[in-house]
Amino acid sequence: MNIFFGDNAFLHLSTLRNNYDKFFVLTDENIYKIYSTLFASLIPDKEIIKIVIPEGEHGKNIENIMFIWNKLIDGNAGRDSLLINIGGGTITDIGGFAASCYKRGIDFVNIPTTLLAMIDASIGGKNGINFNNYKNQIGLFSEPESIIINPDFLKSLNERDLLSGLAEMMKYAFIADSSFLGLDRDNYMEFIEKAAITKDEIVGFDIKESGLRKILNFGHTIGHALESYYLEKENYLTHGEAVALGMYSSLYLSVKYCGLDEKWLLFYEMWYMANLNPLELNDFNVDAIMSFISHDKKNKGGKPRFVLISAPEKPHIDVDVSMTDIKDSILILKTKFSK
What we know:
The protein is α/β, with parallel strands linked by helices. 44% of the residues lie in helices and 18% in strands. The protein has twelve helices and ten strands. It has a six-stranded parallel β-sheet with strand order 1-8-5-4-2-3, sandwiched between helices. A two-stranded antiparallel ribbon has the order 6-7. A two-stranded antiparallel sheet has the order 9-10.
């Protein structure tokens, strides 16, 4: 898989013009409204059939998968067709899943438009949908033909979505590269390419998440539970917001289970307050959140397993944590980070 960066990254699509018979673009209503003129010029002299779905995490469902498949069938898409996914993590997730199942698999390209998608969601071949309010319960591993990253898309991103990507970037400081400790909301552009390459390198060693790749789940066990719990509520959490909270819980547990110096817990709390916005964690029900953890797809033998650290760049996978300690690490979030 190739990752192309910068203003000229779109030129890569022109090199694909003779490789496929038909071209389809999947995007959401918001992205299409902003960038509709871009779609026609992606591959000169080639017709591009547009597939537009509602925006947001709520759209990552089987109904939209069926909608995409029907559009591919209506457009006579064959195995020599290409699906181009333009959008955030929801679009790259659902588009990769739809493409990988259609006719046992057609090629797809990811063009991420959010910070979170550029440095995480679009990379690594994880594709899936939510099911019964459980995050990413149905999915598969299938890598895109290529990923095209152009930071110019971030100019149209609202502050909330932009900040949602910062915690995922900071994650790399704790699991892989301490230079990310210098990341903040003012200099994040300098870290985008490095973050994308870091994830791609980790995935390259372990595509099916049997070992090393598990470190990328730092903060995600509790993060996904929070995201799932708030998914159907009016004050939903973005994926990045949920992971930002989950990372604090993981650092809290790392102090107890892995001997992490408590200064890193304080460092992250201060970094969070300086770079992210406080949340309205209304209807915070820790027992309900715990029930989502019990259904986490990463569980082993029905028990949650955590990625924790003993120091920055020193992750530990499959750490067995007691339910009591997990609950304590969630309860503290309401006190620390809610408005």
